């Protein structure tokens, strides 16, 4: 990052303007920008030959690329990153965009329904695919119960102090008996009453370690597998709301193979736990361009993401927009930022 910023600092005014106008033109139209086009845009009168020389220098620095012979230039991933970090002008939130997001909040329903509506509005406003990571239910746990549904199926039931109930199907370890299920439930109820889901993992491991003689192997295995459903892929899938996949099909024909990969990732919701981790280095909007985006295998995409917080300023979820690398970052950043702040306020008010 420092090296890229130093390159920008060392550019003269002409090189910086050529670079900025190439990137802005590409983001606006998705097309390479040529020297003749730039001669009509530059703040000073300069020949096309001079601009071509500047563009060649920028290409040598790895900031621009020429996709076809005799074509104009497009920014590279490094060039986009330098533009976003050093030259991007983020505008104010457009009033119509704000109204679209605000209109989704006051329609009643639970938090999940509200987040679903917000995801749809965010996708509509940005013309990208929206990602909303819903918070875990954080009320204290009142009661836990295991219910056998057969030799290879069981249900773990969590009852929260606020009356909320969650059921999860899972495959229990072999050999479970009604008594081992009662023992596992009794152990967890004693250890976890008054705790939240966020506390479960550390508390259970500590309790099992200190009370090894009070729980047999079968019950211990059931505790491990039962609680794993709250940390596993099934929960992450339910927590991630994806809307607007069809918007991604509006790109160029050559992008379709990459879009299919992205669709596959979104359907399987790969590494969803990492989605929230992406935001934990600090609050505010973050932008991941191309291969910087480790969440999905699609390197030709960009992700604009922001966490949202509860009343205690604890990060509990995130909202984001994913689309091609030529996203209109200056417009999308304030939309994502506003949406994240709005979601945080709404969830805090409902707590």
TrEMBL record:
<comment type="similarity">
    <text>Belongs to the HrcA family.</text>
</comment>
<dbReference type="InterPro" id="IPR002571">
    <property type="entry name" value="HrcA"/>
</dbReference>
<dbReference type="InterPro" id="IPR023120">
    <property type="entry name" value="WHTH_transcript_rep_HrcA_IDD"/>
</dbReference>
<feature type="domain" description="Heat-inducible transcription repressor HrcA C-terminal">
    <location>
        <begin position="114"/>
        <end position="333"/>
    </location>
</feature>
<dbReference type="GO" id="GO:0003677">
    <property type="term" value="F:DNA binding"/>
</dbReference>
<keyword id="KW-0804">Transcription</keyword>
<dbReference type="Pfam" id="PF01628">
    <property type="entry name" value="HrcA"/>
</dbReference>
<dbReference type="InterPro" id="IPR036390">
    <property type="entry name" value="WH_DNA-bd_sf"/>
</dbReference>
<dbReference type="GO" id="GO:0045892">
    <property type="term" value="P:negative regulation of DNA-templated transcription"/>
</dbReference>
<dbReference type="InterPro" id="IPR029016">
    <property type="entry name" value="GAF-like_dom_sf"/>
</dbReference>
<comment type="function">
    <text>Negative regulator of class I heat shock genes (grpE-dnaK-dnaJ and groELS operons). Prevents heat-shock induction of these operons.</text>
</comment>
<keyword id="KW-0678">Repressor</keyword>
<dbReference type="InterPro" id="IPR021153">
    <property type="entry name" value="HrcA_C"/>
</dbReference>
<keyword id="KW-0805">Transcription regulation</keyword>
<protein>
    <recommendedName>
        <fullName>Heat-inducible transcription repressor HrcA</fullName>
    </recommendedName>
</protein>
<keyword id="KW-0346">Stress response</keyword>
<dbReference type="InterPro" id="IPR036388">
    <property type="entry name" value="WH-like_DNA-bd_sf"/>
</dbReference>
């Amino acid at each position: 990052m420092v090296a890229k910023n130093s390159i920008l600092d060392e550019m003269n005014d002409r090189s910086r303007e050529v670079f900025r106008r190439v990137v802005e033109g590409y983001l606006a139209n998705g097309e390479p920008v040529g020297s003749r086009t730039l001669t009509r845009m530059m703040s000073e009168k300069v020949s096309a030959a001079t601009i071509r020389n500047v563009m060649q220098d920028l290409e040598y620095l790895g900031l621009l690329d020429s996709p076809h012979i005799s074509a104009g230039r497009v920014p590279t991933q490094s060039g986009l990153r330098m533009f976003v970090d050093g030259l991007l002008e983020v505008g104010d939130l457009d009033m119509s965009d704000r109204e679209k997001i605000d209109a989704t909040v006051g329609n009643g329903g639970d938090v999940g329904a509200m987040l679903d509506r917000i995801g749809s509005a965010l996708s509509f406003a940005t013309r990208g695919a929206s990602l909303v990571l819903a918070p875990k239910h954080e009320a204290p746990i009142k009661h836990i119960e295991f219910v056998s549904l057969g030799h290879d199926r069981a249900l773990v039931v969590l009852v929260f102090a606020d009356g909320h109930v969650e059921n999860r199907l899972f495959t229990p370890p072999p050999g479970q008996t009604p008594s081992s299920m009662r023992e596992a439930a009794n152990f967890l109820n004693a250890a976890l009453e008054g705790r939240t889901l966020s506390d479960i993992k550390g508390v259970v491991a500590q309790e099992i370690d200190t009370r090894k003689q009070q729980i047999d192997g079968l019950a211990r295995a059931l505790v491990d597998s039962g609680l794993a459903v709250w940390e596993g892929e099934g929960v992450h899938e339910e927590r991630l709301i994806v809307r607007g996949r069809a918007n991604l099909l509006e790109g160029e024909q050559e992008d379709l193979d990459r879009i299919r990969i992205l669709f596959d990732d979104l359907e399987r919701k790969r590494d969803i736990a990492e989605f929230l981790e992406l935001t934990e280095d600090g609050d505010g909007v973050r932008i991941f361009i191309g291969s910087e985006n480790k969440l999905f295998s699609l390197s030709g995409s960009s992700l604009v993401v922001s966490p949202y917080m509860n009343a205690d300023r604890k990060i509990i979820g995130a909202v984001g927009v994913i689309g091609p690398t030529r996203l209109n970052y200056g417009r999308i950043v304030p939309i994502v930022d506003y949406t994240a702040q709005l979601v945080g306020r709404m969830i805090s008010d409902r707590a």
